[in-house]
Design goal:
InterPro entries: aa-tRNA-synt_IIb, aa-tRNA-synth_II, aa-tRNA-synth_II/BPL/LPL, Anticodon-bd, Anticodon-bd_dom_sf, Pro-tRNA-ligase_IIa, Pro-tRNA-synth_IIa_bac-type, Pro-tRNA-Synthase_IIa_type1. This protein is α+β, with helices and mostly antiparallel strands. It is built from 15 helices and 31 strands.
């Protein structure tokens, strides 16, 4: 392609509203332009990269035994009402009405649609297992779109769904998809980890996220420094063992603690360690109020609270709700003398606290000398806190460290969550109706594009992996008004295209410094500069990744490119 014919609006300055590298570089290199908050146009270079990522995804999905289809983005509300998610999915689901006042949603995901499709067509175990996938634009009304295409309201996604007659078949299909995802992200040149995750609004169990390691990631990965264990920090279990000291128990004493609300403030005010303080947080668990306790230096993990109660929704009680239920403002809440209808649960670390400190459910007052077995009614102790760096790895091998990650893929074992709700059944070998067992597998294609740039860039621009780059070779004649340089560049362009290379020829009437700057910004793997030695049949070849450059005689150019690019 000739650069004069392509739409590549590069920018010299970093846009003020672009916070992260991928967003900055995609704007500066002319890959995207914003249309409105969280919605972008993918310009020709980005479109070419997206198609290459999609091709990798297709190859791996096909190899895993999945067939491609395309479902509507516009989905009728009745399907979401069947599954129950019309009411529970939240404000991220974009809802609308047609001219007949019927409710619809723009597809955030397609579990309901694919389940309705398969239930109407598949009736026998003989047609299972079945795996289907699509690559399509999705819509989610993000409260705070940010980081360019990493978190937008419209994005490109590959979503796949599998249907099985047995759990063993689901396990086999899940393993195939897991391996396919590893292949996809490896082929995209990404440094990633597969981590144990929470299924969230999707439902189901046994789920993994594929995280691209990056400091700008919105998720925290807990991983072992001595094994392959990795999990989203929300899902990592704590296996620490706590020992109770033999110190004598003190009497319970209420004390005045004026304006001392936080653990930091109360530990400093009383000159006690955070480990002896009891943090008490009121949660609303499926409309039921539960008081959750943790050690002062630990943070309560609401996902673990949700799983403890097998709840659908867990959220912090508001200040008004806390005042109404406990007659107390947040900051002074504690587990002593609370109403019987409020269940109290505690993290395991709290069970060994002797002579602790907690809120007195009275403003500006705390208790000290707290011993929960004596002074409160804790219904159960469980693992309810976030794991911390330095904790023992859940697999018992090494210690936990943290890293930030960008989620680019997610695989779920949905089980019968949707098939039971939507009556998607098949007849088994005995002629009995059974709910289909499902799996779900998603890849953020446009997010993968941004994640690649986050990991592959330098101070001058993008540094594309060869198989993902929009073009492989960038030919730059130093002076297009020079007949020898222009003709040699044109001849090389046609010759290399004929040999199967993807070539971008910068034929613009621009200064060579502008051309080189744009070339580095766009980041194609190989640059061939046609300059003063064109009459001698010599060009300069420069590798974008290493910065290495060398002069090559035209007679040796094909062999050199073969060594570099393998074609």
């Amino acid at each position: 392609m000739k650069q004069s014919m392509m739409f590549i609006p590069t920018l010299r300055e970093i846009p003020a509203d672009a916070e992260v590298k991928s967003h900055q570089l995609m704007l500066r290199a002319g890959f995207i332009r914003q249309n409105t908050s969280g919605v972008y146009s993918y310009l020709p270079l980005a479109h070419k990269v997206l198609k290459k990522i999609e091709q990798i995804v297709r190859e791996e999905m096909n190899q895993a035994g999945a067939s491609e289809l395309l479902m509507p983005a516009l989905q009728q509300a009745e399907l979401w009402q069947e599954s129950g998610r019309w009411y529970s999915y939240g404000p991220e689901l974009m809802r609308l009405k047609d001219r007949h006042n019927r409710d619809f949603a723009l597809g955030a995901t397609h579990e309901e649609m694919i389940t309705s499709l398969v239930r109407d067509e598949v009736k026998s175990y003989k047609r299972l297992p079945l795996a289907l996938y699509q690559i399509q634009t999705k819509f989610r009304d993000e409260k705070r779109p940010r980081f360019g295409v990493l978190r937008g309201r419209e994005f490109i996604m590959k979503d796949a769904y599998s249907f099985h007659s047995t759990n063993e078949s689901l396990d086999e299909g899940y393993t195939k998809m897991f391996e396919a995802y590893q292949n996809v992200f490896s082929r995209c040149g990404l440094n990633f980890r597969a981590v144990i995750a929470d299924s969230g609004a999707m439902g189901g169990t046994d789920t993994h996220e594929f995280m691209v390691l990056s400091e700008i990631g919105e998720d925290t990965i807990a991983y072992s420094d001595s094994s392959q264990y990795a999990a989203n920090v929300e899902m990592a279990p704590v296996i620490a063992e706590y020992e109770k000291s033999n110190v004598a128990e003190n009497e319970l004493e209420k004390i005045v603690t004026p304006n001392q609300r936080t653990i930091e403030e109360i530990s400093s005010f009383l000159n006690v360690s955070k480990e002896t303080c009891v943090k008490s947080i009121l949660f609303k668990v499926d409309e039921k109020f539960v008081l959750v306790l943790a050690r002062g230096d630990h943070e309560i993990n609401d996902i673990k609270v949700k799983n403890l109660f097998s709840a659908s929704v867990v959220e912090l009680a508001t200040a008004d709700e806390t005042k109404e239920v406990l007659n107390c403002v947040p900051g002074y809440v504690g587990p002593i003398n609370i109403p019987n209808e409020i269940e109290v649960v505690a993290d395991q670390a709290v069970s060994v606290i002797i002579n602790g400190v907690c809120g007195a459910n009275e403003e500006n007052h705390h208790y000290k000398g707290v011993n929960l077995d004596r002074d409160a009614k804790v219904s159960q102790y469980a693992d309810l806190r976030f794991i911390q760096e330095g904790d023992v790895s859940p697999d018992g091998k090494g210690l936990i460290q943290f890293a930030k990650g960008i989620e680019v893929g997610h695989v779920f074992k949905l089980g019968t969550r949707y098939s039971e709700a939507m009556n998607a059944t098949f007849l088994d070998e005995n002629g009995r109706a059974q709910p289909m067992i499902m799996g779900c597998y998603g890849i953020g294609v446009s997010r993968t594009l941004a994640a690649i740039i986050e990991q592959h860039n330098d101070e001058n621009g993008i540094v594309w992996p060869e198989n993902i780059a929009p073009f492989t070779i960038h030919i730059i004649p130093v002076n297009v008004k020079n007949d020898s340089q222009r003709e040699l560049a044109e001849n090389l362009y046609h010759e290399l295209n004929t040999k199967g290379y993807e070539v971008l020829l910068d034929d613009r009437q621009e200064r060579v410094g502008v051309k080189f700057a744009d070339s580095d910004l766009i980041g194609l793997p190989v640059r061939i500069t046609v300059g003063k030695k064109a009459d001698e049949g010599i060009v300069e070849v420069k590798l974008r990744k290493s910065g290495e450059s060398f002069e090559v005689n035209l007679n040796d150019l094909t062999e050199k490119l073969t060594q570099i690019l393998g074609l």
